[in-house]
Each structure stands twice: as structure tokens, then as C-alpha cells.
């Protein structure tokens, strides 16, 4: 299978956990050895937010703040590459042309952001579209899409499947509780909708969820047309 994975910021706390990153790298190498094509987009995490906050305080405009965040996501990708070794492309692609060339190598690709104004969610959706992925897996710190914020509402119910247009309405209406828990941003949802790539939002802290989806099982919430 061709799999695009978005690693959420939870995997890159301010006090970086090298053991956690190693666990993910070991999993991606195993999936690669099993014959899957793997592309990973890393988020910025707490360190990106810290740098952006400091840049704003120093008078940086939003475009420059975006660029600073992108640089942090690329550093996170380099951490992953450090453990993936020769089985990964040595450099994170920084634009779609470089990504296309990296895909031609057949190696594991780890990358961060690309363009100011585009989140790493949107980058992961674009990368999945370019590689003609069989699935996009969005690894976060909750186990799917809920009817409410599961960290605050004990009555919130998890959805097994949600259509892209319904998820887009939730995002635009602010029902994804920005700052509460991560899902997909509007641009990413639109790309997922047009590409029709099955997109899974899962608890990435449970590594078995990733393998389960690749083997045809279910985990978290599937973003696709409801049947």
C-alpha cells in the first residue's frame, strides 16, 4: 500500500522524547520492509508554537511566523530521518518538485511543511494526493472525531465515519474546539474531499492502530462518504 502519515504535534513535545521518535521510526521501517510505500509529514508541536509566539513578540509578521513554524517541522522530520537511516531520503522535501523526485526513489520520505499559509495537515493531504495514496492516516492524541470535545464533554460520542463535507462544516463552525484537540483544518478537509483518499483520524499513541488500518482493519474515525 501507499500510505501517507501525518504525525501530530503531540509526538514532538517541548522536551523532545527520542525514545518515542525511535518507536515510530522502527514502525515505519517495518512497514517499509513489508512492501508498503511510506511518506510521513511531521507537525511542529510545542516548540513551533514557542518559536512563533516569540517571533510575534519580536514584531515578526504572520508570513515570517509561518516560515519559522515550517523550519521547526523540518527539524522534527530530520529527527525521524536520523533513526530511519539509509532507508529514508536524507533530506526533507521542501517543495512539490522535490517531493516528486523523492517519491521516485522508493525510500521512506519524512518531511515537514512546505508553504507559508498551509498547515502540515494540508501538506499531508497534498502529498497523499501526489503519491496516489491508498490511505492518509492522521495521528493525533484522541481516537477519532467526536460530537463534542472528548476532553471536556463526557457525553461526546465518537463517530466511526464522517463525510468530508460534514467534517468541513464542523471545522468552519468552530465545532472542532481549536486548541482543544487536533483534527484536520479546512484546507486539508477540502483536499481530502476532492482526492477521495480514505483518511483515518486515529490515536497515534497506540502504534497498533497504524498497522491495523494498513492490514484492512478499522481504528478511529474514517473520513469518507458515508455508506
Model description:
The structure is a single chain. The protein is an alpha/beta fold. It has one domain (2-223): 3-Layer(aba) Sandwich (Carbamate kinase). Helix content is 44%, strand content 15%. It has eight helices and nine strands. Helix 1 (18-33) crosses helix 3 and helix 6 runs antiparallel to helix 7 (186-195). The protein is globular and about 40 Å long. It starts with a strand and ends with a strand.
Number of strands: 9
Residue-averaged pLDDT: 90
Text of the CATH class: Alpha Beta
Secondary-structure content class: alpha/beta
What fold name stands as the CATH topology? Carbamate kinase
Query: What string, H for helix and E for strand, traces the elements in order?
Result: EHEHHHEHEEEEHHEHE
| Intertermini distance | 23 Å
| CATH architecture group name | 3-Layer(aba) Sandwich
Kindly give the count of domains: 1
Looking across the biggest beta sheet, what order are the strands in? 3-2-1-4-8-9-7
> CATH homologous superfamily?
Acetylglutamate kinase-like
Question: Which geometry do the CA atoms define?
Answer: globular
Low-confidence stretches: 175-181
The value of Rg in angstroms is 17 Å
Amino acid at each position: 500500500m501507499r500510505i501517507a502519515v501525518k504525525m501530530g504535534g503531540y509526538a514532538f513535545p517541548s522536551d523532545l522524547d527520542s525514545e518515542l521518535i525511535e518507536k515510530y521510526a522502527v514502525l515505519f521501517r517495518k512497514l517499509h520492509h513489508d512492501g508498503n510505500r511510506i511518506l510521513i509529514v511531521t507537525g511542529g508541536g510545542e516548540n513551533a508554537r514557542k518559536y512563533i509566539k516569540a517571533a510575534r513578540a519580536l514584531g515578526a509578521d504572520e508570513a515570517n511566523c509561518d516560515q519559522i513554524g515550517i523550519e521547526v517541522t523540518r527539524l522534527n522530520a530530520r529527527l525521524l530521518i536520523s533513526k530511519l537511516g539509509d532507508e529514508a531520503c536524507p533530506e526533507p522535501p521542501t517543495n512539490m518538485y522535490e517531493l516528486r523526485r523523492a517519491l521516485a526513489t522508493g525510500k521512506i520520505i519524512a518531511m515537514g511543511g512546505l508553504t507559508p499559509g498551509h498547515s502540515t495537515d494540508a501538506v499531508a493531504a497534498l502529498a497523499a494526493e501526489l503519491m496516489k495514496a491508498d490511505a492518509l492516516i492522521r495521528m493525533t492524541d484522541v481516537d477519532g472525531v467526536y460530537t463534542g470535545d472528548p476532553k471536556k464533554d463526557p457525553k461526546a460520542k465518537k463517530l466511526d465515519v464522517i463525510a468530508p463535507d460534514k467534517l468541513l462544516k464542523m471545522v468552519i463552525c468552530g465545532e472542532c474546539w481549536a486548541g482543544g484537540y487536533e483534527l484536520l483544518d479546512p484546507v486539508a478537509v477540502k483536499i481530502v474531499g476532492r482526492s477521495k483518499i480514505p483518511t483515518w483520524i486515529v490515536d497515534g499513541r497506540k502504534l497498533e492502530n497504524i498497522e491495523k488500518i494498513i492490514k484492512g482493519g478499522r481504528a478511529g474515525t474514517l473520513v469518507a462518504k458515508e455508506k
